[in-house]
Design a protein that fits this description.
Shape: elongated
Helix content: 55-70%
Subcellular location: Membrane
Keywords: Membrane, Transmembrane, Transmembrane helix
Number of helices: 7
Oligomer: single chain
Main location: membrane
InterPro entries: DiS_bond_form_DsbB/BdbC, DsbB-like_sf, Uncharacterised_DsbB
GO molecular function, one term: protein-disulfide reductase activity
């Protein structure tokens, strides 16, 4: 005698592959995070600095790659393909955590940031354009925090979210590699 949930393959214990679960989770977390970043930028008008924009690249990679890896896992793609997708997700998000940590250090004044977003403004153009440029240009500095919650800036939260995604992708990689 079988229960209804055991008779349906999707509800059997262990039926979902770790690659599918991990890649779906990373995709959902990345999509929610980038949607949050756009909300902060477009609705709350907290403009991103150049380092903030660079930190988004990993999310722009993770969303389609995670979805593609999930699709491949759902369709029982070869294990090396799934492992490659999960490895790239883990490495990209781990590197993004490093970039977020670097940015957080710039915000806390532990080290200097890139000159394009934390150094002095060097080129102001000619004197005739100076006043018109000052009215239209808003410099967003990497070393000035625009928003904090519980002591962390958005760069700090990026570190935590990226580490979480890296851990999920690494778990999916290891569990998929061990699966027979």
């Amino acid at each position: 005698m079988t229960t209804q949930s055991a008779a349906i393959p999707a509800f059997r214990p262990g039926a979902a592959s770790p690659a599918l679960m991990a890649s779906l989770l990373v995709t959902l977390i990345a999509a929610a995070t980038i949607a949050g970043a756009w909300f902060f930028q477009l609705v709350l008008e907290i403009l991103p600095c150049p380092l903030c924009l660079e930190q988004r690249y990993a999310y722009y990679l993770a969303i389609p790659l995670g979805a593609l890896t999930a699709f491949a896992a759902k369709n029982r793609a070869p294990r090396p393909l799934l492992l490659a997708g999960l490895a790239i997700l883990a490495l990209a998000t781990l590197a993004n955590a490093g970039l977020g940590a670097y940015h957080s250090g710039v915000e806390w004044g532990f080290w200097k940031g890139p000159t394009d977003c934390s150094g002095p403004v060097v080129n102001l153009g000619n004197a005739g354009d100076l006043f018109s440029r000052l009215d239209t240009v808003k410099v967003v500095r990497c070393d000035e925090v625009q928003w904090r919650f519980l002591g962390l800036s958005l760069a700090g939260y990026n570190v935590l979210i990226s580490l979480l995604m890296a851990a999920i992708a690494a778990w999916g990689f290891v569990a998929t590699a061990k699966r027979s």
